[in-house]
Amino acid sequence: MPFDEDPKESALHQWYGAAKHQANNAATASAPIDPTEVPRNGTRVAIQGEPGSFSHEAAIKLVKDAVIVPCSLSADVFAAVASGSVDAAVIPIENSLAGSVSEHFDLLLAHDVKVERETLLRIRHNLIGLSGSSVDDIERIFSHPVALAQCRRFLANHPRMESFAFYDTAGSVKQLVQLGDHHAAAIASKAAAQYYGAQILLADIEDNPENYTRFFLVRRTSDAVTAPDANKLSLAFSLENRPGSLVAALSELAALGTNLTKIESRPVQGKPWEYIFYVDCQLHAPEEGQRALQVLAPHCAMVKELGRYPEAQG
What we know:
- The chain is of the alpha/beta class.
- The protein is built from ten helices and 15 strands.
- It has helices at residues 7-30, 54-62, 74-83, 102-110, 145-149, 152-157, 169-179, 190-196, 245-255, 286-296; strands spanning 43-48, 66-71, 88-95, 99-100, 113-122, 126-129, 140-143, 162-165, 184-188, 199-202, 212-220, 232-239, 259-267, 275-282, 300-309.
- A hairpin with a 7-residue loop joins strand 13 and strand 14 (275-282).
- The termini are far apart.
């Protein structure tokens, strides 16, 4: 190291330089995926991020024989499902503290896929270091920006530890182990620590224990199977640009007795001030889902069912 180089700056350059190299390699590997390189003795499930991530944990919860296919970008995940390179994907769709993953709603609409199931995962954040490290050794903490935001109280109580945004929670543990950086730590799941052979220095450091993420299991529309006990409907619709159109559409759903549990809007790309509405409804009977689509049609320029599935229990 040159005599005038700051050791901290050198460490950060090492972290981010290696991460950029890994990201470039991951992008090359994940688009497209060669299905001949993926073991075929299980259900091939694409996730965004590294093995050991919360998406990995949710995938195993939803698909017991899942063979995880990591992708660098969410767009790669959906492309893999649509092309048939994988059998399914597991994606985070909403966090109880951070809100919806808007990009994933847009990708659900853009691809010929359906939501088949959902699950809720309790998000527990841990301070993870190399084996043999202690909390007193840690000067730098790396993790996904959302994870860092959910651990603000811990970070405020440890001002000596500087926090740095990284591309993935599990990826930060992977990088930590590869670099052998005893003065760095990651914030990630217990599964990530186990997967990469790292050590949990402090457990459950998140600010709020009521931290859950909802994940969807997504398949190609032609492969998706609607469960007999499906009692939840996700759909997207756009409206004609006329006064009262949203009220009229929602009134039709209310007249059916359908309980809306979520509604949000997203701008239509290339069409300023036009919006797509994403809605979740609880269904009292299987046929209610089809009726909901039928009553919306006269009021909407577009209606798409995103999936019918059993509601996850907390």
